[in-house]
Amino acid sequence: MTFADFLPKDVSLTIAMALCAVAFVSGTARGFSGFGAALIFMPLASSIAAPRLVAALLLVIDFVSAAPLLPHAWRKADRKATAVIALGALVGVPVGTYFLSVLEPVTTRWIISCFVAALLLLLLSGWRYRGKDHAWLAVGIGGLSGFCSGLAQTGGPPIVGYWLGRPIAPIVARANIVLFFGASDFFSMISYATTGLISRESLALSLIVGPVYALGVAFGASLFGRASERVFRGICYALIAMAVIAGLPVLDGVLR
């Protein structure tokens, strides 16, 4: 029995190895900067395999890796405020999932590339919401994040920009973010499962790619402290930008 025998149907050894390479780079970025994994993974992975497959793959990997963080986040988070913003995700995730399930792969890739480029600009701007608390705004941001997560698992920047701008302790803000994404991932798992996006193929592939992603996170974490946070963030932004460009469908005839 060879490694190829464990691969899902319609996924070649070359594709699996390429996804593992992308997962390692994405995990490394997350390990040393704390963000950016999905923004790197989705544009590149969607140019290698079907967007539906790689979105489900990333969801499973992230859901498993984030689960151990939830008990601590539950204790430290402002659960009432997080529940309000999670209401938006409850609506946004199924809408994003619907579009992922019905759009043509190339169309989905263009949307993913545009989304990630816009989210990169949001990160580069350093935006933080510092206005007053409004329930309708929190629900709206949760809905936007949920939509991005349902379509492409890229819902991080709006939530991070919102919570880190609030006048609350950093430990509470981080706990709120972790708890929100625990809820968002749970909604996504249900939504993906009911639309058939969570398949035997995506689960089997997650067993192969997931450990490589975890190695990347560990490797990235080991680099933390060896240079300034500013340098690490700059590297991550550059990787996201390169992923957007390399994943553009218009370059398929050149790069793939």
Automatic annotation (TrEMBL):
Coiled-coil ranges (or none): none
One GO CC term on file: plasma membrane
Location within or outside the cell: Cell membrane
Major place of residence: membrane
Keyword presence, Hydrolase: no
Keywords from the named record: Cell membrane, Membrane, Transmembrane, Transmembrane helix, Transport
Record flagged with keyword Oxidoreductase: no
InterPro entries with a match to the protein in the record: TM_pro_TauE-like (IPR002781), TSUP (IPR052017)
Parts of the chain that traverse the membrane: 15-41, 53-71, 83-103, 110-129, 135-165, 177-198, 204-224, 231-251
Superkingdom as given in the UniProt entry: Bacteria
Membrane topology: Multi-pass membrane protein
Family membership noted in the UniProt record: Belongs to the 4-toluene sulfonate uptake permease (TSUP) (TC 2.A.102) family.
Name of the protein in question: Probable membrane transporter protein
Protein species of origin: Bradyrhizobium nanningense
Highest classification ranks of the organism: Bacteria, Pseudomonadati, Pseudomonadota, Alphaproteobacteria, Hyphomicrobiales
